[in-house]
Amino acid sequence: MLILLSEIIPDSENDDKSATAANDPVTEDTYEYKKQTEAELCKILGEIKGVGSIKVMVTIEGTTEYVYAEELDTDTDKDGEKTSEQYKNEVVMVEQDGRKDALVKKIIKPQISGVVIVCQGGGDANLSERVLRAASVALNLPASRICVECRK
After folding, report:
1. Segment among 4-8, 96-100, 117-121, 130-134 with least mean pLDDT
2. Distance (Å, rounded) from C-alpha 111 to C-alpha 132?
3. End-to-end CA distance of the chain
4. Whether 60 and 120 share a structural domain
5. Could you tell me if residue 13 is inside a domain?
6. Which residue of 1, 10, 118, 146 lies most exposed, with the fewest beta carbons within 10 A?
7. Of all residues in the chain, what percent carry a pLDDT higher than 90?
8. Residue 39 belongs to a domain with what CATH number?
């Protein structure tokens, strides 16, 4: 009966989630992370001599992921030669300002999958290489995932 009930409940929740996807805090966090990364990269690369005006586009893979703290309870029963174990996980809840929220253990930011940098000095091979190297180090990305082009 519980298995049947568990199959029915997620379907009704998915309908509600699709209606509120635009206001999803995870999506907002991901968008803010992308915009912040682009702004910081523009700022630092703009300081390189000869770069000129610059635009940066960062592409990301996935979304912000929250890992919640859990309590694990283990019960072991021994009955002669037979041993059985039962496990129970519960998310740790904290009360703050009169409401209960799950305790966040870790926030995992989405992976940056590529970067396009367009700058006035992008036509110069030496400058382009310096910008590429700086972006690679700043984002911990291989150079193959970064493109530097000349601005029109």
Report:
1. 4-8
2. 19
3. 65
4. yes
5. no
6. 1
7. 40
8. 3.30.300.30
pTM of this prediction?
0.64
How far is the C-alpha of 35 from the C-alpha of 82, rounded, in Å?
A: 57
Calculate ∠ Cα 81-82-85, nearest 5°.
140
Q: What is the mean pLDDT of residues 87-93?
A: 80
Question: Identity (one letter) of the amino acid at 76?
Answer: T
What pLDDT, on a 0 to 100 scale, did the predictor assign at position 2?
Answer: 57
Instruction: Name the domain count of the chain.
Output: 2
128 or 84, which is more confident: 128
Residues 117, 104 within the same domain: no
Beta strands in the chain (DSSP E): 54-61, 65-68, 70-79, 82-91, 93-96, 99-102, 104-108, 111-119, 146-150
Give the three-class secondary structure for 104.
strand
Range of the domain at 83: 66-108
Specify the amino acid at residue 114.
G
Tell me: do 117 and 149 sit in the same domain. yes
Do 142 and 74 reside in the same domain of the chain? no
What's the chain's length in residues? 152
Do 117 and 152 have their domain in common? yes
- In one-letter notation, the amino acid at residue 115 is V
